Amino acid sequence: MNLASIVEPHDPASPALISRGRTTTYGELRDQVAGLRGGLVGLGLEPGDRVAILCANNWYFVSSYLAILGMGAVAVPLNPLSPPRELERELASVGVRAVMVGPSGRVTVDAIDRSRLPALEFVIHGEGHQGGDVHFDDLLTADPAPIVERSEDDLAVLIFTSGTAGSPKAAMLSHGNLLSSIDQVIALRGDGGNHNDVGFAVLPMFHIFGLNVVLGTALRAGASVVLVERFDPSSAIEAIQKHGVTVLAGAPTMWSTWAAMSDLPDDAFATVGIAMSGAASLDPQVATTIRERFGLEVGEGYGLTEASPVVTTSFGLPWRPGSVGSALDGIEIRLVDVDGQDALIGDPGEIWVRGPNVFRGYWEDEDATRAALDEQGWLHTGDVALVDDDGLIYLVDRAKDLIIVSGFNVFPAEVEDVICEMAGVSECAVVGVPHPHTGESVKAFVVPAAGYAIEEDAVIEHCAENLARYKCPQKVNFVDTLPQNLSGKVLRRALR
């Protein structure tokens, strides 16, 4: 098997990708990817090598992703807007040997210090860029290479996640993990997937939801995908109507933006048959507004990178805002109380997950892997939920201190480490606070060292230079001390 082979069976004349105003058919896509595979092999890349993708949602990303998997290498999708320091850290931590760079990633990759990345040999640039070691066009004209056979357990993708605890780390997802999640999602419809569907890919593909749920399920079904590089609410509506989008998935911020737009026509989503929200909790009032104004029921689900990602969904169940539904077929769920026993109906418990979609662990981090996966194969998510009499699940809390900004995970320790590098910072703690547009935003509490005066803007600017934008604090409070328990651990709940 090889996950990249999901595009092979489909009608060569059927549209696969709609990107930058151009439609690519399945036949064209297969030919392009075969050439790109050959080009990568010609560079000397081998199965198991890590190859990063630094690209927005467009043809460059999809063709790179399929070519990397198809030649047996490991795809490492990264945020093209990451600052150079963060990118260097991620590339170095997994020993990336090559980087595929789309137009949106040029500035970042040009600014990295390659002397810090001894494993990096090739920078492969796309459209209109003269720098780098290799150009996409040169690889596309190579002799086609066949798809390399892989086992279900062979590593396919590394995606950086905050994990169930600790700082960001690379989650290892195998070909079997990803394909099982795709098939579990497709099975919800009971029709094997509809090749006439048109998906809307606005969720970034360096995020597992966009990569495997939006892109993966569409390509598996032989459907077409409208690739959106940047979300603009008005132009998005135009694209949905122009292309007849039938499957629409996004983060809660997308839905809340549209719910607040009073000038949208009632038939704005007339072609949409399936609407889903994920990556963070959707405000039930937003879901109700969308339903009452547009007649569109937005379902919710629950998942995490370590589960490839979907665990539960409300698709096909009675509409009940606030619920993330029930487990997909083939997935086991336990809600476990503080005593390690199954929680009673209505009582909160930590979500444990087991199934073929559960990841292999964290890259070269045995301690973190053992903390997340027990000997029976249960993934301890750190998320807390309860189940009602109808078997529907409701998220109630997070056992971890994870902050979710517009559907993206931010772990406080990563932001705190960056802030504490500043001269004059004695201590720092970071928490998530409610935000009307992004769900949560990052707020920092800083204890200045004696004799130092630090400006809020200086802290925010320092973070912007070293972290992705969504990880940067929007507000900084300066305090004399941080609340701590008897063991000296900062009490984040008190700061919230």
Describe the 3D structure.
- There is one protein chain.
- This protein has 496 residues and is of the alpha/beta class.
- It is built from 14 helices and 26 strands.
- Helix content is 28%, strand content 26%.
- The chain is globular.
- Helix 9 (252-259) packs across helix 10.
- 51% of the residues are buried.
- The longest helix is centred in the first third of the chain and has 17 residues, at 26-42.
- The chain has three domains: 3-150, Rossmann fold; 198-398, ANL, N-terminal domain (Rossmann fold, 3-Layer(aba) Sandwich); 403-495, GMP Synthetase, Chain A, domain 3 (2-Layer Sandwich), CATH 3.30.300.30.
Brief sketch in words of this structure:
The chain has 496 residues and is of the alpha/beta class. The protein folds into 3 domains: 3-150, Rossmann fold, CATH 3.40.50; 198-398, ANL, N-terminal domain (Rossmann fold), CATH 3.40.50; 403-495, ANL, C-terminal domain (GMP Synthetase, Chain A, domain 3, 2-Layer Sandwich), CATH 3.30.300.30.
CATH topology of the largest domain: Rossmann fold
Total count of domains:
3
The residue fraction in helices comes out at 25-40%
Strand count, sense and barrel status of the largest sheet are: 9 strands, mixed
State the end-to-end distance.
48 Å
Mean pLDDT across all residues, rounded? 91
In terms of DSSP E residues, the strand content is: 25-35%
Gross CATH architecture of the largest domain: 3-Layer(aba) Sandwich
Unreliably modeled segments: none
Q: Rg, please?
A: 22 Å
Let me know the number of strands.
26
The DSSP helix count reads 14
Given helix and strand content, the structural type is alpha/beta
With strands numbered from the N-terminus, the spatial order across the biggest sheet is 2-1-11-10-12-13-14-15-16
CATH class call of the largest domain: Alpha Beta
Structural shape: globular
Output the CATH homologous superfamily of the largest domain.
ANL, N-terminal domain
